């Protein structure tokens, strides 16, 4: 899988923090981790899985949170992340509105959310509508990663919830 176009979506700066929320780590996780390491940034992970695969050796500088059920929320401190990336989890989670609220709170102002799902596994129009309803602006569907539906939106300063 060629991830070069996918990685062009990101422009991290030193000290940036990205958060990937997924049910399995893969090449996207590896490449995002390398990208963040190259600028002295951080990629933290939330893994929704029953098994706690030891990933500390693979991602030594990442804070890794394991959650055993898609009914539970993840934890993230307010305004600590510059991008939140949901990968193959959003459409499966039982409380989409709740995890969008957590994502909104943890994002810095003018930060972005990315939702990527296996193509056809989720209703993209519904995702766009949910993002709008939860105060994410400039929603875009982007077709650049084969086999994936990808949606991006922004948390804009002084809009919506005011956080």
Overview of the molecule:
The protein is 23% helix and 31% strand. By secondary structure, it is of the alpha/beta class. The protein has one domain (15-155): Rossmann fold. A hairpin with a 5-residue loop joins strand 6 and strand 7 (148-155).
Could you give a quick summary of the protein structure above?
23% of the residues lie in helices and 31% in strands.
CATH superfamily caption:
Vaccinia Virus protein VP39
* Largest sheet, spatial ordering of strands: 3-2-1-4-5-7-6
- Give a quick account of the main beta sheet: strands, pairing sense, barrel closure: 7 strands, mixed
Rg (C-alpha, Å): 15 Å
Task: Assign the CATH topology.
Answer: Rossmann fold
Q: Please name the CATH architecture.
A: 3-Layer(aba) Sandwich
Unreliable stretches covering 5 or more consecutive residues: none
Estimated share of beta-strand residues: 25-35%
Number of separate structural domains: 1
Number of helices: 4
Supply the helix-strand structural class.
Answer: alpha/beta
Percent of residues in helices comes to 10-25%
Overall shape: it is: globular
Number of strands: 7
What is the residue-averaged pLDDT?
94
Order of helices and strands: HEHEEEHEHEE
| CATH top level class name | Alpha Beta
Distance between the termini: 37 Å
Task: Summarize this structure as a short list of keywords or feature phrases.
163 residues; alpha/beta; Rossmann fold; 7-stranded mixed β-sheet
Show the helix and strand layout.
Layout: H1 4-7, E1 17-22, H2 27-38, E2 42-48, E3 64-67, E4 81-87, H3 96-106, E5 107-118, H4 124-133, E6 137-142, E7 148-155
Parallel strand pairs: 1-2, 1-4, 2-3, 4-5
Antiparallel strand pairs: 5-7, 6-7
């Amino acid at each position: 899988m060629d991830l070069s176009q996918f990685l062009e979506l990101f422009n991290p700066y030193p000290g940036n923090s990205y958060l990937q929320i997924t049910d399995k780590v893969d090449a996207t996780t590896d490449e995002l981790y390398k990208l963040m390491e190259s600028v002295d940034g951080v990629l933290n992970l939330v893994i929704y899985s029953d098994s706690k695969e030891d990933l500390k050796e693979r991602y030594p500088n990442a804070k890794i949170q394991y959650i055993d059920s898609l009914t539970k929320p993840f934890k993230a401190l307010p305004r600590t992340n510059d991008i939140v990336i949901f990968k193959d989890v959003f459409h499966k989670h039982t409380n989409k509105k709740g995890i969008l609220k957590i994502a909104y709170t943890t994002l810095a102002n003018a930060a972005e959310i990315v939702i990527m799902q296996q193509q056809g596994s989720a209703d993209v129009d519904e995702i766009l509508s949910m993002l709008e309803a939860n105060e994410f602006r400039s929603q875009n569907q982007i077709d650049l990663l084969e086999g994936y539906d990808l949606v991006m939106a922004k948390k804009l300063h002084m809009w919506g919830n005011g956080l």
